[in-house]
Amino acid sequence: GAGVSQSPSNKVTEKGKDVELRCDPISGHTALYWYRQRLGQGLEFLIYFQGNSAPDKSGLPSDRFSAERTGESVSTLTIQRTQQEDSAVYLCASSLKPQQEAFFGQGTRLTVV
Amino acid sequence: AQSVSQHNHHVILSEAASLELGCNYSYGGTVNLFWYVQYPGQHLQLLLKYFSGDPLVKGIKGFEAEFIKSKFSFNLRKPSVQWSDTAEYFCAVSNDYKLSFGAGTTVTVRA
To answer: What averages of pLDDT result for each successive group of 10 residues across chain A (113 residues)?
Structure first.
């Protein structure tokens, strides 16, 4: 597609439920990032994928968070047993190569009630 | 660990005023530098970038930024702001592959 696509755009879930967020990067982009943006705060790095290399998971806040990406295609971010503090906008970005300009999706606004 | 600091949390100014937003980073190696902007209701988009060469870079909408290596700074400037520049501005630094962001500065331009 023309840009980075994320789905759903909004998700309301009950505390304790699992959620799965999806990111479609720009075709041909080898690098993919996930960030979390809490209300009024900056972007918190979560995870980075580069081609078929092992991902950098150093930003994942707990073992309830996991992410996958197959090759250079779609990525999914899964949050298990959601908590209220998980409420945030989850942003995905992709870039052609590492260190190049990153293109962002619209984000998924997650609300845990 | 690499970090990015933006000096101002919220800036309020009138149209035609000049704008300067500070950004400092902690990493000492070779870095690529970016400013992103997020207009209300829109996604993050690139304003300008610095990879190498002339340390004064020009971006879209009349913005420019200056890389000062000795100060680990990459400050954003615009000589005369417009109401439409109301947005949140993020400085970002990339080394190796990690792309780290500052906390952001909210800029409000009063008509």
So the answer is: 90 98 95 92 92 90 95 93 97 91 95 98
Q: Which of B36, B51, B99, B101 is best to mutate for the A interface (most A CBs within 10 A)?
A: B99
- Amino acid A42: pLDDT: 85
Q: Are A78 and A20 in contact (CB under 8 A)?
A: yes
DSSP single-letter state for residue A54: P
Chain A residues within an 8 Å CB radius of B98: 45, 48, 56
pLDDT tens readout for residues B42-76: 989 999 999 999 999 999 999 999 999 999 999 99
The verdict on a CB contact (< 8 Å) between A43 and B94 is no
What distance in Å separates the CA atoms of residue A26 and residue A51, rounded to the nearest whole number? 13
Say yes or no: A91 contacts chain B, CB-CB below 8 A.
yes
**Contact by Cβ (8 Å): B83, B94:** no
Tokens of A11: 């998700």
